[in-house]
Amino acid sequence: MDARRLLGWGLVALCTACSGAKQAVREPSDPGTGGSGAVARSQSLDSEQSGSRRYVDEALGFELIQPGGEWILDQTDEKTPEGLAIPVVLRHRSSGAQVVLQVAPAVATPAQFAERLTVGLRSQPGFVTSDPVPLSMSDSAVGFDFAVGDNVRGRVVVRDGSPGHVFMMLATWPTTAPDEVPKTVNALFESVRPLPVAPEQT
Fold this sequence. Notes:
Strand content: 35-45%
CATH topology: Protein Transport Mog1p, Chain A
Largest sheet: 8 strands, antiparallel
CATH superfamily: Mog1/PsbP, alpha/beta/alpha sandwich
Number of strands: 12
Number of domains: 1
Structural class: alpha+beta
Number of helices: 3
CATH architecture: 3-Layer(aba) Sandwich
Mean pLDDT: 80
């Protein structure tokens, strides 16, 4: 498995998200369908943010808290030949902000993935990035911010995932988005975590 090929898919997803960051997002007719078959499910939560839901994908071994309000979750079932899965994309309807979750084989550490993504983005015209820094969400989590010209801002977080995987989270939003959008993105990133591994029975 070539980490550089996985990095290439990550850059494609990120650049695609950047190109659509300023566009209005149309709500899908049935946002609750698709995903990893019967093992993907969402549950309503008692939350201060109306409409928040816990989303669980048992096949890929992760859970997240879907924000309420104008945030829409699309289940994609996309998977590349290299084994990179893109199970969900979340979009903010009025601002055009977008969050993409990717589940990749652990052919490199989160820090190595983040460093390679940083180098790759800096090679793209108009991209400016910060250096990757450790994050408190897990022992191995790292993240960095980036900008595309004067119009788009974004953030990338890479953390340990389910056994044998890493989670790559890519977010973009227009600079005109309200302050609550990047705050919600950060809360969403914090909510993504691997499912507990059940102990083996002997």
